[in-house]
Amino acid sequence: MMTRRIALILPVLLLLVVVAEAAAPSEDRILALDRYTSDKGRTLGATYAVTLKQLNTSIYHCMPWLEVPKEGIGFFKPRDAARDDRYLSLRVYIEQEPSTQFAAMPVEQRASSMFSRYVGPLLRRMTGNGAMLNDSSLDGFTVILEWLKEMPLSGGRPVHETIAVFLDKPTALEYLQGMVKPPDLADRARVYGWDGESPLGRLRLAAWDDNFVSTYKVENYQLAPGVTCQ
Length: 230
Prior knowledge:
The longest helix has 20 residues, at 107-126. The protein is built from 8 helices and 9 strands. A hairpin with an 8-residue loop joins β6 and β7 (159-168). It has one domain (6-215). Strands 3, 4, 5, 6, 7, 8 and 9 form a 7-stranded mixed beta sheet that branches. It has 230 residues and is α+β, with helices and mostly antiparallel strands. Helix content is 30%, strand content 23%.
């Protein structure tokens, strides 16, 4: 579906052998201004166009096992919002080999594992612009995680699982300041799940500290010249 640079995935250790590609991601990963449905969203998209481009580039280079789909970055209205709230939204597909052990877990446990592993690190990448954080038009943040649930039968379609995590801005800022820990972040977030195309409704997740993103290294992957990752 979204293979980009990953040539081989080892099932247990998730070690990736990556083939280097062009030094810049596709700009269609960012929602175009003429695709916004309100002036509020369009103004945010125009004002922070450089920030969105930097986020797209950061994921592309520094987390190469994640794939941002077309229009996966933008200022979207949350699905459960009653008014025109605008959240900075990032959607990623996680390239990983499905595990029988992981698939045997209850859905809430699988979702909790993905939340713990990715929501905090991605939120930090989304919040590097202080002016944007102080903009009263920005109401919060959305992180959407998608992964392959299980290998399809011969000739069948792959089944993915997805969670959408909605965080209001006060909660996100308190987390970034260290005032909210991962268990409380999960408790205060609004999380919805999907099994393939079937909605699972709102999920109640546990969360914990997970250092996978800060310690994981993609085998044989080299940053493009001039690129640094924090």
